[in-house]
Amino acid sequence: MNLNFETTVVRGASGGDRHTGAISFPIYQSATFKHPALNESTGYDYSRLQNPTVEELEKTVALLENGRYGLAFATGLAAINCIVHLFKAGDHLVISEDLYGGTFRLFGSIYKELGIESTFVDTRDFLAVKDAIKENTKGIFIETPSNPSLRVTDIRGIGRIAKEKDLIFIVDNTFLTPYYQKPLDLGADLVIHSGTKYLGGHNDVLAGLIVAKDDRFIERLRYINMSTGATIGPFEAWLVLRGIKTLHIRLEKSEESAIVIANWLKEQDEVSDVYYTGLEEHEGYEVNKSQSTGFGTTLSFRVKDKKLVEKILKRVKVVSFAESLGGVDTLITYPFTQTHSEIPDDLRKRLGVDEYLLRLSVGIENIKDILDDLKQAIKGE
Ligand SMILES: *Cc1c(COP(=O)(O)O)cnc(C)c1O
């Protein structure tokens, strides 16, 4: 039976435990598994290779992304790190310049030193992408909408370029999740997630995922994951499975509030710009609408007076001043010193990540309480 998204999130891939009928998929908290006899296995040997709870998470997210295979990791960055191992020294990648800070550090520093080269470009611009492709280019990595400037890249368009040049096309789908956007249906080869964000959804677990739609990559990725050991523990996998059960409900609620907050911020004298894909005047509104069914719950805004930043961060009470996004709690982040502190100055300037920019991840609290809090934080009332 072909189940709808909202049913799959609740049931997971297997709809409970086939051995006991447990509705909640059990946490198989075991490092190792008994062999029935020599050369026999239950299918499970050692939890760095495979674990039933982890497998349930992998299969569930694969179903949600319309992929065939999933792989779970200890963190989102561990998932991205695994993908980098598909490439080797001398290879080159084209990457969205507006990117999660940790991903930037991984490609721009760690792997650069090991000989994997990257060019960071504005992937909204197909010509810039084509110009950046060289003889040794092997992959394209994008984030859309991007972090923290909410730039929207046309996934289908980049998919066509990748296909034409035979490049591995990777999309970080953390911001919209498969509930709103399914990059594998739009031409991506691999989707990655920080499961720490919307999939986990409660700011209580770190996790990462890769989903692929064909066999070309998955055996290799599984082998790399098993060999490098960044596997997720069964309890963490279970927390993500539990978070996923309410993914659609949380996103709908948070998005409804995000739209109200974005429109409210727009009207405030203290605020000069609001960046949110749910605003019709947002430059990426149409492209985002053409490839997804929602806007997500993360928005950024710029204040006119940079001295106000410190005051807002000190005054917020319902909203928490903390890194991360995608959870039930509303968080406010200062990318300049937090998530994007290590991005080179000239690039930060080009992206508008400056001392005036704040990012909000809208949670599921009462909207009036969030608005009242932002109002007193911004106005000092
Ligand atoms: C947080 C984040 C990551 C990294 O994930 P971790 O779980 O923190 O390692 C990667 N991409 C995006 C878009 C993120 O927001």
TrEMBL record:
Keywords: Pyridoxal phosphate, Transferase
PROSITE patterns found in the cross-reference section: CYS_MET_METAB_PP
PANTHER family given in the database record: CYSTATHIONINE GAMMA-SYNTHASE, TRANS-SULFURATION ENZYME FAMILY MEMBER
Gene3D superfamilies: Aspartate Aminotransferase, domain 1 (3.90.1150.10), Type I PLP-dependent aspartate aminotransferase-like (Major domain) (3.40.640.10)
CC cofactor: pyridoxal 5'-phosphate
A GO term for molecular function: transferase activity
UniProt superkingdom: Bacteria
Entries under CDD domains matching the protein: CGS_like
InterPro entries on file: Cys/Met-Metab_PyrdxlP-dep_enz, Cys_met_metab_PP, PyrdxlP-dep_Trfase, PyrdxlP-dep_Trfase_major, PyrdxlP-dep_Trfase_small
UniProt similarity note: Belongs to the trans-sulfuration enzymes family.
Pfam families associated with the record: Cys_Met_Meta_PP
Transmembrane segments: none
Protein name in UniProt: PLP-dependent transferase
Lineage: Bacteria, Bacillati, Bacillota, Clostridia, Eubacteriales
